[in-house]
Amino acid sequence: MLDLAALIAIDQVMAKLGQPSKEVVAAIDASLARWFTPTKPNQVFPTTAQIRRRIRDLVKVHDDSIAVEDKRPKNRYSMMTRAQRATLELEVDSSVGIIIHEAIKAAAEKHEVSMAEALILLTTGKVEPEAARVVLHTYKADDVEDAPVYVEGHGWQVGDIPAKSTTVRDLSTKPEASKSYGPATMVRKYVEGRDGTCRAAGCGMPAWLCQLDHRINYADGGPTHPDNMVALCQHHHNMKTDGRAFYILDPDTGDVVWLFEDGTWAITEPSGPLAPKRKRWARTIAQDIEGYRARKHREAQELKAELDKEQREAARQTEKAKNKKSEGGEEIPF
Ligand SMILES: [Zn+2]
């Protein structure tokens, strides 16, 4: 019943033991023989994958100094069908995921279809991918070593996003005012990077989906400059335009003080990567990620120690049971 593929699988895992003792080989051989021997009529023989898994477990019991499997994250794809529906799942590094996501989004926008529809069109070759035209805005501190990258629409992540071409804009100081009503890219990206979200209290609309409001109207001489501009979503922009609320912007801290009709007021802090408080955060998030990884590593080591202990206990029990059987005079063939 053992075909070549199964024998290769056994050999590949066994090879990791190096030069195992005769006793170890005999013990593994006995375990496999027991497992391979059918105990029911028409019992299906284990698959190569099952055999590989089983022998990995056996090898682990006999030599815990080796790792038989690489469990580091790798790209994964799976499909599951249930009734008339199918679910497809892709697991990749976040930098790759963001690029794919943006490519699907670009196709969805161009063809005015949903994201799901766009992915179907792309993968069935009905439309051409727009990947080459995906524009992604990221923010990164250049005075912090290994600074995390803030990806517009996706938040913080470690490591740069691979790009075909990159335009770098220096936003370490405030850009000059735009001459026109519409802000230049530098002004827009500075305000979005400072504000993070719509600046109304409790509103989470991402800044890059917001409108930039001239605090003092452009017509009244208000400049198109970050010191006079705030990201507001459509809803909260209307609230301001209608005169139901008015705000003051602190150009140094980016704080917005809202003054309401009924005389109450509220302060909101900017939450984007360029916000003064967040600039420091770029440093701490790098440390946080390092700390998180160290903790996860420690937990994984502790888990392994725990599992090993259980496995040793289980192996001892099996050995005990086996010895009892042998005492009965029953011969084990090999
Ligand atoms: Zn809002």
Structure at a glance:
The chain is of the alpha+beta class and 334 residues long.
Description:
One of its GO terms (molecular function) is endonuclease activity. InterPro entries: HNH, HNH_nuc. Residues 299-328 have a biased composition (Basic and acidic residues). Residues 292-334 are annotated as: Disordered. It comes from Corynebacterium hiratae. The chain has a three-stranded antiparallel β-sheet with strand order 3-4-5, with no helix packed on it. Strands 8-9-10 form a three-stranded antiparallel β-sheet. It has a two-stranded antiparallel sheet with strand order 1-2. Helix content is 42%, strand content 13%. Among the domains are: 1-70, no CATH class; 76-133, no CATH class; 172-276, no CATH class. The mean pLDDT is 83. The protein contains eight helices and ten strands. It is of the alpha+beta class and 334 residues long. A hairpin with a 6-residue loop joins strand 8 (245-249) and strand 9. Zinc ion binds next to helix 7.
List the SSEs and their pairings.
Blueprint: H1 4-14, H2 22-36, H3 48-62, E1 76-82, E2 85-91, H4 94-111, H5 115-123, E3 138-140, E4 149-151, E5 155-157, H6 185-195, E6 211-214, E7 229-232, H7 234-241, E8 245-249, E9 256-260, E10 265-268, H8 276-327
The structure holds zinc ion.
Zinc ion is lined by residues 198, 200, 203, 205, 232-233, 235-236.
